[in-house]
Amino acid sequence: MHLPSLFQAFVRERRYLSNVTPKTIVWHESAWGLFGKHLPADLDASELTGAHLKTATMALASGQRSAITVNSYARSLNAFLGWAHTEGHLTKRLRIGKLKEPQVIIATLRPAEVQAVIKWNPKRREYKRLQVLLLLILDCGLRLNEALMLERSAVDWDMGGLKVYGKGRKERIVPISQPMKRRLWQWLKTHEDAYVFPNRTGGPLSQTYVHHAMARTRDLIGIPTATRFYAHGLRHSFATAYLRAGGNVVVLQRILGHADLQTTMRYVHLQTADLTAVHDRYSPLTQR
Question: Which residues are identified as catalytic?
């Protein structure tokens, strides 16, 4: 079977048998759109070699796409290659190698900026909704989409947890602090919609709306222009604060919903202030 047809069979199985989300299907199709155009169009699956995959990877890497992007799509292709081998279409288990990614410090809010979000006292209802949303991400480390799709029935007031559906529709329980429970309780008293953060028609807010709302309100909150103020940065801030306070990285992995511990380990980094404090403590020049 030719590779394009085989890949469509893989996607159909993922859609109907594995019940993956539409977003995942788009990811798979985008991955094939990038890699597939660098493979011979009439290539049969049995003729595919590691050299073909290496050529496609180098073609993508030499373009404008980052190593992180190429690696993301490579994960999709590797899932396809593993499936094709299991189904007997490939005699050899092929795999696309991972490109070296730049090691960058994940952007987080400074403590003063976190306090600015907490102490913000908005009057407009839409801004009150935004504040509770931002605080929930800061308190629980949710992905933005997880918070937006959260329903009021998912809040366990007795146990102090949220039932969250993450990537791949994987369910997990995320703990919530007492102060956040009080904030959430007060907010939910203002409406009766099923979603915790509803739009005007009762459905979930869109991620685009939240991004724009954060851009509009950063000055009102008191977030400096130089600070990267975005929803996923609040998730980064939660993870970093959790580890700084002595939290266990394996527990953090479960809270964040990471399938791979290595993904969580990205948060085990120190900010400049931490590095300076450690350096001052151990430098030979500061020893008496």
Answer: 143, 167, 232, 235, 258, 267
